[in-house]
Amino acid sequence: MCPGIAYADPSSTSIEQGYELGEIQHPRSVAMGNAAQVFGGSTTAVFVNPANLPLYRVYHLEALAALGPEARRQSYGGAIADSSTSRLAGGFGGTWSQMDPDGIKRQFTDLRLAIAYPLGDRFSLGATGRFLRIGQKVSAGPLGASLASDGTREEPVFSAFTFDAGAAVQVSENIRIAMSGRNLTAPGTALAPLAVAGGIGFSTSTVTIEADSLVDFTTFGSARARAMLGAELLVADRFPLRAGYRYDAGMKTHAASLGVGYVERKFSVEFGGRRDVVGDHPATLLSLGLRFFIDSASGGSGDTGETF
User: Fold this and answer.
1) Rounded to an integer, what distance in angstroms lies between the CA atom of residue 95 and that of residue 111?
2) In whole angstroms, what is the distance from residue 21 CA to residue 95 CA?
3) CB-CB contact of 40 with 28 (8 Å)
4) pTM
5) What does the alpha-carbon distance between residue 76 and residue 96 come to, in Å, rounded to a whole number?
6) What is the pLDDT of residues 156-214, one digit of tens each?
7) Is 15-298 a domain of CATH 2.40.160.40?
8) Where are the domains of the chain?
9) What are the φ/ψ torsions at residue 232 (nearest 5 degrees)?
10) DSSP bridge partners of 67
């Protein structure tokens, strides 16, 4: 008898749900329900809100990996953030990702260069230049073999530069507000959707609570909102415990998230996971980060980025 041919299962989510606005999924952001506009510092700021780069005095290098089983998405990359050598903070990050290799087979490379500057002790501005290149299988789009859905065999679907910008204000010792705009060149495609996000947060040396919102103007043809809430507790100056909730009106999903980390003087390991608890196509996202503290003065509590 001739052996049968085995086929991998295709993605069980929609393309929009698997692509996640093209966001780079940092483990802290994932664990806190994507609520990272206000206190997402260090390498997280490169991917979320560049105005947070000066929030902590750090010099960090991080390796990242993420997996979405239902979307059959995998991402690998890293980032570096430096806010300790001068008042002008900077960072660079990038990932390579693949989604649904036996279906649409979308592959995307995302590179980001961020800078930020504090104007006084309470206000900071930042900007991120982004290069995004995306390819996918010919004839895999909803329109079949069409320039509108998948371009040509030789060229990517999307290859362009765009930018993000952000601002943050320290209202008091513990309260901070921030906002950012994404893909502000308005490419007019769901591959790089125009979006505005903002939030408010409360933080001490051991506890952080943050509430964010985001409005996506492109992916669904009309503005759709996302609400996010996250909390973090630092235990014994070594173990950040995180939890979050997210409601996405565009994808009509409610999601819960959890995360944990371990922090030493020279490095940290972080893990975050999110699961849709309500939705037509519930999906899971897992993210792992290994961060090295290049500047030993920024190890331990308080200055290593985020709340630890």
Assistant:
1) 7
2) 14
3) yes
4) 0.86
5) 6
6) 899 999 999 999 999 999 999 999 999 999 999 999 999 999 999 999 999 999 999 99
7) yes
8) 15-298
9) -140, 135
10) 74, 286
